[in-house]
Description:
By secondary structure, the protein is mostly beta strands.
Amino acid sequence: MAALVLVGGCGLGTPTAGTASATPAPKANGEPWVVVQTGSATPSAGPSVRTGAPRTTPTASFLPTSSACAIGWPDDVGQVMIPILVTPVAGGFRVEWPAKYGPTYRITAVLQTLVVGAQPTPSWLTVRSAGGCTMTATITGLTAGAPYIVWLDAPDTPRAVDNSRSLYTGRSGVVYPL
């Protein structure tokens, strides 16, 4: 059995002239809706005395760090986007990203020139993690000086409530191979 209780701040009683209090309106059975009782102050707690052995701080050990872990990747901040670092090389890019989004990744460089009609399907390079903090891959065979955006896809990243996922989970700005 459910009960509905409504509480309001107005109309609960008729104010008495010259006072700041109100008389609560009675319930159907004649009892007031609000019961106010005067009380007394509670004494302050005295200082506590601790006995026994002193507390010790637990020891902690950390995984070893290497120069690969030294990149200051930004925190996720609730986003799916993976930060990537793109370095232009002759005819392509060297791409680095944190390896904490699963064991398999895919990368591609998408040409940013205007194309009439259907857009070409990106050619993805699959990269498997060998462990460590950072993944690295090199994309080659690109046109020197042409504008590209590098996409990174981590197929093992979480999916949305509707089971959908972004085509890519990380991307660069416009970059140009050497």
